[in-house]
Amino acid sequence: MKAIIGIILVLFCMSFMIQGCLLLAVGVGAGAGAATVAYVKGELRTTYAASLNRTWEATLSALKDLRINVYSSKKDATEGDIEATKADGTKVKINLEPAGPDTTSVRIRVGMFGDEEASRVINRQIASKLGVKSQ
Predict the structure, then answer these.
(1) Are the CB atoms for 109 and 41 separated by under 8 Å?
(2) Which residues are CB-neighbours of 19 under 8 A, at least 6 positions away?
(3) 126: which residues sit within 8 A by CB, 6+ positions away?
(4) C-alpha distances in angstroms, 43 versus 39, 49, 112?
(5) Angle at the Cα of 73 from the Cα atoms of 92 and 85, rounded to 5 degrees
(6) What is the pTM of this model?
(7) Angstrom distances, CA of residue 34 to CA of 2, 30, 61, 64, 67
(8) Per-residue pLDDT for the chain (135 aa), expressed as one digit of tens each?
(9) How many angstroms from the chain centroid is the CA of residue 14?
(10) How far apart are CA 104 and CA 114, in angstroms?
(11) Under DSSP, is residue 95 helix (H, G, I), strand (E, B) or coil?
(12) In the chain, which end has fewer C-beta atoms inside a 10 angstrom radius, N or C?
């Protein structure tokens, strides 16, 4: 019985590793002009082939275009955090972190539990500002 449980556990762990490899392969195969996107646990996660500074400016510009009010923004060399509210009072939190040379990871959460469609709207606007395709 212990052997069966062990095999199931190993297979379960391997499935997560394979999914991670597939996501990495999609991101690498997508090319420099595209961004990888995943919606996980109420948060939209995107990796852009752009520097932290360029992505930061694109994010602030995107929020302004969408009339989302930024009430807090902090950035240093290692990350940036933005807190904002939509017109209806819904909170928006965005975190940016370097993910490699000229690559930035962006996490967007709209509302307490997440709003995928609203997150994707913000993400598309950021991508537009960066001049890349968004999924």
Answers:
(1) no
(2) none
(3) 46, 48, 55, 58, 59, 62, 106, 134
(4) 6, 20, 10
(5) 25
(6) 0.72
(7) 45, 6, 19, 23, 25
(8) 656 555 665 665 555 444 443 333 334 333 345 567 888 889 999 999 999 999 999 999 999 999 999 999 999 989 999 999 999 999 999 999 999 989 999 999 999 999 999 999 999 999 999 998 765
(9) 24
(10) 21
(11) strand
(12) N
Q: Which tokens go with 34?
A: 């595209």
Q: Find where tokens 């939209």 sit.
A: 44
Tokens of 83: 């807190």
The residue written with tokens 């109420």 in the block is 42
CB atoms under 10 Å from CB of 109, counted, come to 20
> What gap in Å lies between CA 107 and CA 18, rounded to an integer?
22
- The runs of H, that is alpha helices, within 1-135 are 2-29, 52-65, 116-130
Tell me how far apart the alpha carbons of residues 130 and 21 are, in angstroms, rounded to a whole number: 26
As given in the structure block, the two tokens for residue 96 are 């940016």
